[in-house]
Each structure stands twice: as C-alpha cells, then as structure tokens.
Amino acid sequence: MNSSNENTVAANPATAEGAATKSEKGMSRKWLYGILILAFLFVLMPYLFWQMTWFGRPLNDAGIAKAFGDENHPREAQHALSQLADRMLSSDANARASARKWYPQVVAMAASPSDELRLTAAWVMQQDNSVPEFHTALVKLLSDNNAMVSRNAALALVRFNDAAGHEVIFNMLEPAEIAAPASGKLVERAGAGDAVNAGAMIGRIESDGHGAMELRTNSPGTFERWNVANGTSVASGAAIAVIDASSDEVWEALRALYIIGKPSDESTIEIYTHSVKGMAPRIREQAKETLGAIRAHEQQVPPAK
C-alpha cells in the first residue's frame, strides 16, 4: 500500500516536469514570435512614415488630382506641388507639358489658408517664369503675413525680372526682431547661440487676460539675445528678442541681390565679405561677387541729367 503510494508519488514529478517543459517551449515560441513581430514593426513603421512624408514618391495625374482634392490633409497637396515642380524642371518636354494643365491648381494653392501650401506654391511658381498668372500671384504673396511665404515670393519674382521684393530680400540679411504678442510677463526658453527654425517656440508671455501665449520665430536663424530680462513685464508689440539671420537665408538673399541689388545695399553686404559667426565660408565669396555685380551695374547706368 505504502509502496504503491510511493511509486505514484515518485511518478508525478516526472509528469509535471514534462508539462512544464512543453509550457516553457510554448512560451519561448510566443516570445520569439512577439520579438519577430516587434522587429517587423520597427522596420515597417519608419517605411510607412517615409512613404507618407517623402515628396519624391511619384504621383500620376490621378494621384495629383486626389491630393489637390484632399482638403483635410494639406501635406498631400504639398506632395502634388513638389511633383509638379519636378515635371516643370524635367528635361523631358512631355513631362513639362503635362505639368501645365495643373497651373490653375498651383495658383489656387497660392491663396490657400495653409502657410505650408502658400510657401510651397511660391517655390513652384518660380520654376516657370513665362506664366503671367504666376507673376500676379507672387506679387500678392509679397504682403503675406507669414515671413517665409513673402520671402519665397520675393525670391521667386527675381526669376520674373521683377525687383518688387527687393526690400523683403534685403531684410533677409538683417537680424529679425520678435515682438510680444500681448502684454504680460516674459518667460524665456531660448538662449544666446541657440539655432532656431521658423516657427520655433523661444518663450511665452503670461498674462491674466490672455493666459500663456507662445513666442515663436518668424524665420530661421541663431538666437542672439533677449532685450528684456526673464520674468519682466512687457507691453504688447514691444521688441523683446533678436534672431540673427541664418546662413541659408543670407545665401539666397545675396544671390538675388546679385541681380537686383542697389547701391544702398552695399554697406550691409560688405559685412558679409568678412568672417561672420555662424555663416558658411561660401557666404564671403558670394557677398564679394554680389558687391562686384552691383558696382558694375552702377558704372553701366548713365548718370541722371
């Protein structure tokens, strides 16, 4: 009796051990599958994000029409605009011709409430300076509330032999001031030397009447300084911060002023013929070439009688 019980008891651990081994193998497989699925997602998600955001992904006419019709996703229309620019710049005459039928949509995008679409449309319209409707739309964009849109329009107008954006372009060489959007207490976020993009938040204004209002940059560059101390009360519209121009913005401005520059621009351009902190080496050479072009143009213009 006792012996039988002992044998029964002795057999149970082996059975339990076998069951545990099978369970462990099952769990190991589940973990393996889970790891494989997770690894697959790590590869898939960036790919899908790239597909959704990469403007180089080709679109046929049906895709462009769908993108322009998607009012809820402006980035799709941006993708279509980028694709049209590629066609306009193509060495293939058929590709260039296929872009022209979409020109009315490009002009329509230049009047979009989306800053990104107006910005991209301004860049696209410079690719064909034979279109009067593009010229008209770009002139309107010169007074756009978004600094980057007006700058793109001013640069594009140079391709149309139109110097109407000269002041906008010249201002790209100058530091930009940030004004307080409302009265209140300044809470600083950015510091001297910080690189900032257009639309970057550099601080906020806290007031009882408006709550906290974000301070954002109008253009890219390097944060230069605060004009007032952190925690100081400021008045609405007061210039409270200074952003130095970015190297890329200065580069584009100098190239444009090579064509439409004026004698009154020379003293500011002269600054960039020397080493300036934060500026790429190519800036000095371009500044020298731009000064030379302006001075050569002066000599060719007969004096006023």
Structural features, described:
Helix 10 packs parallel to helix 12. The strands form 2 sheets. This protein has a 4-stranded antiparallel sheet. Strands 5-4-2-7 form a 4-stranded antiparallel sheet, with no helix packed on it. It is built from 12 helices and 8 strands. It folds into 4 domains: 1-50; 61-164, Leucine-rich Repeat Variant, CATH 1.25.10.10; 176-245, RNA polymerase II/Efflux pump adaptor protein, barrel-sandwich hybrid domain (OB fold (Dihydrolipoamide Acetyltransferase, E2P), Beta Barrel); 249-300, no CATH class. It has 305 residues and is of the alpha+beta class. Residues 1-11 and 43-54 have low confidence and may be disordered. A hairpin with a 3-residue loop joins strand 4 (201-207) and strand 5. It starts with a helix and ends in a 5-residue tail after the last helix. The chain is globular. The chain has helices spanning 2-53, 61-69, 74-88, 93-100, 103-109, 115-125, 132-141, 147-158, 166-171, 247-260, 266-271, 281-300; strands at residues 176-179, 184-188, 195-196, 201-207, 211-216, 221-226, 233-234, 239-245.
